[in-house]
Design goal:
mainly alpha
Length: about 55
């Protein structure tokens, strides 16, 4: 009974980890798109050294 529970627990853990990693990939893609849009908006303005972020 214990090995079956351990395998079930391992499967649930790996499923949860896979879901979290997939969500992190989606968040990274969204951040990349926002950064690219900000870069394009900044490059089309004619005000010289204006930046859309504060780093």
């Amino acid at each position: 009974m214990v090995p079956i529970l351990l395998v079930l627990l391992l499967a649930l853990l790996l499923f949860g980890l896979g879901f979290a990693v997939k969500m992190l990939w989606w968040i990274a893609i969204i951040v990349l798109v926002v950064w690219l849009l900000g870069f394009l908006v900044r490059s089309t303005t004619a005000s010289g050294r204006s930046r859309w972020y504060r780093w």
